[in-house]
Amino acid sequence: MSDILALKCALCGAEYNPDEVTYVCPKHGDEGILDVVYDYAAIGRRLDRNRLAHRPVPSLWRYAELLPLEQPLGDQPGFASPYGLSSPLWDAGGTPLYHAHQLGDALGLRHLYLKDDGRNPTASFKDRASAVVVVKALELGAKVVTTASSGNAAAALAGMAASVGLPTVIFVPETAPQAKVAQLLMFGATVLLVKGTYDQAFDLTLAAAREFGWYCRSTAYNPYTREGKKTVSFEICEQLGWHAPDRIFVSVGDGNIISGIHKGLKDLLALGWIDHMPKIMGVQAAGSAVLVEAWKKPGETFEFIVPETLADSISVGIPRDRHMALRAVRETDGEYLAVTDDEILDAMRVLAREAAVFAEPAGATGFAGLQKMVREGRLDPEQRNVVVVTGNGLKDVTSAIRATGEPYRVEPEIADVRRVVDQLGR
To answer: pTM of the entire structure?
Structure first.
């Protein structure tokens, strides 16, 4: 299998051949999250930064040698996506990195960058993981794919699976924003709205996958989700000319994105493509801050909660990738931060008005953490900071309007327009 050496348990370090296990370490049940271990020496003999620079495709598949594919793409003509898959959805990744000059000047930061993953095909970061998982589902001959999601991961999975004719069954909490549910239905998924939390939907998905033999994409439980998500680190460093930033800010729910960012950076260090490890800054909603609290204490102990935040994509009380997410921050001398829902709403407004980036609440949470550090005077204005925006604001228009306030309503008469103009002080 490509250049994979093993799947390694995050809890006990046991290693397995990829064909021995599908999801988790048998010694720990559903808690035994696995990590993919690569042969970097073999990869380095086939791929270097110069060869990569000549690949025309900007999607995540340009890093095929660093992905868990049975048949790496190599440099064949028409290099695009695995197995000749053709659909706009397969262009996941390759999202823009903006040097936010105006916003940076307002904050006193000369080198502020925004990685806008809301520009992915289904408008969220989760396309990266779902693309890789659907390829694995095809390699394994899966007949049905399932996942638990607050909406974004499900939309990504449903769309990509639909493009290859794979049926999907999606479990989402009934509180999921309607825009996200609509995406699932339009892509033809069978949608089960769970009368409970995301964490309950997650457990129900695992039970259903076992009961009916469906291939499960759920975050971290499927070890290949992290592999798709790590590609954002490859892109950030390549877009910065292989000069790794000083800090990367990202919102955190289940912990799989932040662990993926860390994994990607470790890959690049192992290959010698970057010369230092950025500090990874995990930002959680205050009402869903399990990892923030764990980070404050020694060891790896977690107190699970019933989350309460408007940022549905990170409303998680039992982070499934919690161990590796905690290590991502500790091993990089980073930090976990908690921000309030009001700070998240403010971050949404500021991103849109100062940088023209429309983010959903979870997508703006990483930036809310950066703003908090600026207010506290804890960021060096000369250092390079990257904020990962994980989802587009159209995913949750209710929160967007809550962030900005309702529009003015007027009669179809100029006098009423004059009333509003006078109210605004012309």
So the answer is: 0.94
